Amino acid sequence: MKNNDKRTVIMQAALKLIAENGFHGAPMSMIADTAGVGTGTIYCHFKSKDLLIKELFLELRKKIIEVLLEGYSDDKPIRERFLHLSTVLLRHFIEHPLHFRFMEQYFNSPYGVTLRREKFLREPSAELDPFEVLFLQGMTQQVMKDFPLPVHAALAFGPLAALVRDHVLGFVKLDDAMIVKFTESCWDGIKR
């Protein structure tokens, strides 16, 4: 197996185990066993478990942003763009529950708290994700309520995470009609 292949297999094993067992329930030895490599091989690719977790997050984030931007146009109205981003994110998490479970754990851990602190306490920069750009433009154009970015994020992602979790648990069935109603309700929460 090539080095890049080993790295990919290690990251897939880490994703699966962390999503199912949490960060502490997925020791490096278990990740190595699941990946079919020696524990030392993991350390050839990742200096520590923290680095593995952070790189896995960055890779998933990049993949999710790529998915969000498929068919996305900055030329469309703010509402339409919000509905696109929310719908695509919701569908992605439904289709990839391991991505959802990993990201939910990440953002509810010290890793996510640190990331959010750095993100929300800094000055806006070119490193904004599509939702942040949209929120800032929506407030500037007075289409969205004038909330701090963390409030917009809470209104957009809090309900979305709860709904995906309830879908995964079988409490609610998210079909196309429900997804449309849900994303429009989220829009109603942030529009002026």
pLDDT below 50 for ≥5 consecutive residues: which ranges?
Answer: none
N-to-C order of helices and strands: HHHHHHHHHH
The proportion of strand residues reads: under 5%
Mean pLDDT: 92
Shape: elongated
**Spatial gap, N to C terminus:** 55 Å
Structural classification: mainly alpha
Using the CA coordinates, give the radius of gyration.
18 Å
Helix proportion range = over 70%
Largest sheet: none
- The overall strand count is 0
Helix tally? 10
Regarding quaternary structure, how should these chains be classified? single chain
Architecture overview:
Helix 5 packs antiparallel against helix 8. The chain has helices at 3-21, 28-35, 39-45, 49-69, 78-95, 97-107, 110-121, 130-140, 149-168, 176-190. It is elongated, with a radius of gyration of 18 Å. By secondary structure, the chain is mostly helical. The chain contains 10 helices and no strands.
Summarize the structure.
The protein is built from 10 helices and no strands. With 192 residues, the chain is an all-alpha fold.
Write the layout of secondary structure elements.
Elements: H1 3-21, H2 28-35, H3 39-45, H4 49-69, H5 78-95, H6 97-107, H7 110-121, H8 130-140, H9 149-168, H10 176-190
Helix pairs in contact: 1-2, 1-6, 4-5, 5-6, 5-8, 5-9, 5-10, 6-9, 9-10
For the structure shown, list the relevant keywords:
10 helices, elongated
